[in-house]
Amino acid sequence: MNRSLVNSLGSIKRELVNFSHSQKFYFVLVAMAIVAIVPLFVRSDYVIGEVLTPMIIFAIYASSWNLLASSGQASLGHAAFLGIGGFASALLAIKLGLPPLIGLFLGSILSAAIGLLIGLACVRLKAWFLAMVTFGFSVIIVTLISQFDSVMGGIMGFPTPLLVPRGVPFYYMTFGFAAISILIMYLVMKSKIGLTFRAIHQNELEAKMIGINTGKYRLIAFVLSTFFAGLAGGLYAQSIRYIQVSIFDPYYSFLPLMMAVIGGLGTIEGPIIGSAIIVSIESYLPRIDPVLQGFLHPLFPSVSNVGPPLRMLGLGLFLVVVVIFAPKGVAPLIKKAYNYLRSSTSEEKT
Amino acid sequence: MITTSGLIETLLWGVANGCIYILLATGLNIIFGVMKLVNFAHGQLLMIGAYIAFAAATALGLNAYIAILVAMGLVALIGVGLERFTFRKVLGTEKLNEIFVSLGLIYVFENVAVLLWGNRSQQIASPFQGLQLSLGEVSIGYDRLLAISVVIVILIALFLLLKKTKIGLAMRATSQKSTASMLMGVNIEKVYIFTFALGAALAGAAGALYGIIFPFNPSIGALPTIKAFAIIILGGLGSIPGAVIGGLLYGIAENTAVYFLGGIWQDAIAFALLIIVLVIRPTGIFGEKGE
What we know:
The structure holds two protein chains of two kinds.
Chain A: H1 2-21, H2 23-41, H3 45-69, H4 79-95, H5 100-122, H6 127-145, H7 149-152, E1 158-159, H8 168-190, H9 192-202, H10 204-209, H11 214-239, E2 242-243, H12 250-263, H13 269-284, H14 289-296, H15 307-325, H16 331-349
Chain B: H1 4-35, H2 42-59, H3 64-90, H4 95-117, E1 132-135, E2 138-141, H5 142-164, H6 166-176, H7 178-183, H8 188-213, H9 222-235, H10 240-261, H11 265-280
Antiparallel strand pairs in B: 1-2
């Protein structure tokens, strides 16, 4: 056990060195620099607080889901962990007076601990059953949580304590958390542990036959994934001002799956691209709601606002279409377009 | 207060609720058995079935129990479309893709229902609404008794279909070994379409019965799906008698839990059963082989 851990850590270190010499590294540096200087050019509070910050938080959340899925375990109930992280971190800070940073950390640990329990129940199960159990967990936890309205604040929720002021400082803080979290997840996925995850995903029986303790690695994936989901939940609770039981809504289980699958399942950039796409849609598309309502209302008289259901319908269709026609997501398409552009420009030179 | 008549009533209600879930679980089970596909949007087909029956009963003025047939037919058609245009494309690729597609379909169905019928709760008007059959201190609504009989009729028809007809034979052959039955001249694609339509029709019937007994809205689909999963796992994946017994056990367990422990346990019991059975005996009580 100790030896394999040392080996894994060694491979992580090697990967870190390799990574810093690769071309990708410079690309990532440029991307991070752009994210870092955006607040200098964008002065709108709405864009920073309601679009870019959620985008970063959901990038962590979707990456955590993606990490679990890379081991072949598709969770349909990740909202449970987002909610546990969010409520635990906020409650610890308010009721016990802990500093928000400690609350955030303990909330993530609690989420990982519950993730370990669910993971233990799922460890022998195949993809469908695991999806059923996690799906069931996310639906049932809403019912159970609503029994504790006195602590959870009911539908209204309660205000969350802040680590740093909202706006630009909060943006930089989530950016810092995201950079560290996604780097850790990248290193895990590139290390021997990640290789094992992929082996289990492709063929669990064969992975077992070559001596991999598949149960152990599936649990590792569960614990890591739910830890970062809890962290994303803690950050999200701070960013939306009020934490409410609606954070357990199955919609929040659907989002990371959607983001990872649309961006590119099993890749590190996929969930980030997916988060950017989905959060942009969710933030800017509601602006055309009044227009839609204007000419669609006669068709659908029983709905007071056709925008939200139409958007959800569109997202559902989008997911189905992506899975059928572009099962690797849009990230490879972007890469292909980039390569095509580069090759066509270099041809012109020669 | 716990009384004998209260207990008997609880059992009867449990059987009636269980019957609706038996239909849903049997549909899921047939689809899984033949196609090795788990449709997470099956509960949404139930919801659509309830709305179709509701529309048939209000707009066309049909008797609620005749509207069940309309719901079965139309939901079966939807099932044909689903199999043909979505699931067939991902069948045989990665297992996760099927899960993703059915998850996308959940959002498609729920929001189509919201757009067409709005968010308000509805209930199908039955000619027997509010009528109770009283035997001593025990009383049960006619609608619940009728639901039980409708389910028994459908299950007998299903049994005959599977055991006595050619397509039933083809379905059973495919469920045992699809490649071998293909070599024996079974048209697998046709069998798949028929199977999915059959499973969807059962969900449609379950939806119509659900709509007669309970009020419903576009978001009711998720819980019945989980309950159907719990039943299937209780009875064993792919086993239809298992689904029937599992459904009865489940309905009784749910109502007994409500009777003794209170309403909040009604939905939690499904999940508790799911976890307990999966952890203790992953093949289910009547299941033969683990999947």
